[in-house]
Specification:
Distance between the termini: 14 Å
CATH topology: Aminopeptidase
Radius of gyration: 16 Å
Helix content: 25-40%
CATH architecture: 3-Layer(aba) Sandwich
Number of strands: 7
Structural class: alpha+beta
Order of helices and strands: EHHHEEEHEHEEH
Strand order of the largest sheet: 1-2-3-4-5-7-6
Length: 182
């Protein structure tokens, strides 16, 4: 049974592990190998620790019945305000062994609910254009709204933005009423 809840400080190691594991299995061929091998779990845990300390309710986690983290996501106010969307999904990662089981969908809907609770009625996100998982967002009603190069240090990577103009409608149509964030 899947449990969705907000993050706690004690979750940062598990989040960092899923974060890096997902990058390393999803982005080969899209990002340089040296960037992927240089990812450091302790450094990533520190970054997540700072984020959770400042915005604890903006990170949601999916745990299984054995208390194993299966995926996580984070959200908040749109960082760039160039596009006409109030909120932004910053991250949405499901561990490689747990993909294809509806966990990403439940996390995304929980993030939408979180933003609605904060008065953010629309949202967008950026995803690497070469990432085949991006079509997941289209299946959940995301509309392709922009393209750009994401700055990845010494190089740029093509990215696509997806947007949802009415989060309440997406949540309502998805039958999210039976589930909640603990």
């Amino acid at each position: 049974m899947l449990s969705i809840r907000t993050a706690r400080a004690s979750d940062v190691q598990a989040i960092a592990h899923v974060d890096i594991e997902t990058w390393r299995t999803t982005y080969p061929g899209m990002l340089p190998d040296d960037l992927l091998t240089a990812l450091d779990e302790r450094q990533r845990a520190r970054q997540w620790s700072r984020f959770i300390a400042h915005r604890p309710h903006d990170v949601v986690l999916a745990y299984d019945e054995w208390d194993r983290l299966q995926g996580f996501g984070s959200c908040g106010v749109q960082r760039e305000t160039v596009l006409p969307y109030a909120g932004e999904i910053f991250t949405l990662y499901v561990g490689p062994d747990d993909q294809g089981r509806g966990i990403g969908r439940q996390l995304l809907l929980a993030l939408f609910q979180r933003m609605l609770g904060e008065g953010l009625s629309s949202a967008m996100l950026w995803v690497l254009a070469a990432n085949p998982s991006r079509y997941f967002y289209e299946r959940l009603g995301g509309r392709r709204i922009a393209d750009r190069q994401l700055d990845m240090g010494r190089f740029g990577v093509p990215a696509v933005a997806y947007g949802w103009s009415d989060l309440a409608d997406v949540v309502r149509r998805s039958g999210r009423t039976r589930s909640r964030i603990d």
